[in-house]
Design a protein that fits this description.
Layout (H helix, E strand, L loop, with lengths): L1 H14 L2 H4 L3 E7 L2 E6 L1 H4 L2 H12 L21 H5 L1
Antiparallel strand pairs: 1-2
Helix pairs in contact: 1-4
Length: 85
């Protein structure tokens, strides 16, 4: 329930950000509480892009809406299996 609502809200917020609107990044797949995102190689080492993903996944409903601290794991790879490593 809650994880599903949080990830859906994060997907909506991310879709409204510049990298996703200008085609440099795309959400390919949602698997339970995970997102698989494809991004241009230039974004892979971008601290700004990393923070954009983190912020929108951790606080999709606003800072005052979630009373339990959330955490996320991130990985970069050429495929999903390697990224989960």
């Amino acid at each position: 329930g809650s994880a599903s609502d949080i990830i859906k809200a994060a997907m909506i917020l991310l879709s409204k950000t510049p990298p996703f609107q200008d085609g440099r990044a795309a959400i390919l797949l949602q698997v339970h509480d995970e997102l698989v995102i494809e991004a241009d190689a230039e974004l892979e080492f971008s601290e700004e892009f990393d923070k954009l993903i983190e912020w929108n996944v951790l606080y999709p409903l606003g800072l005052d809406k979630i009373s339990v601290p959330l955490t996320i794991d991130k990985g970069w790879s050429d495929n999903w299996l390697e990224g989960k490593g």
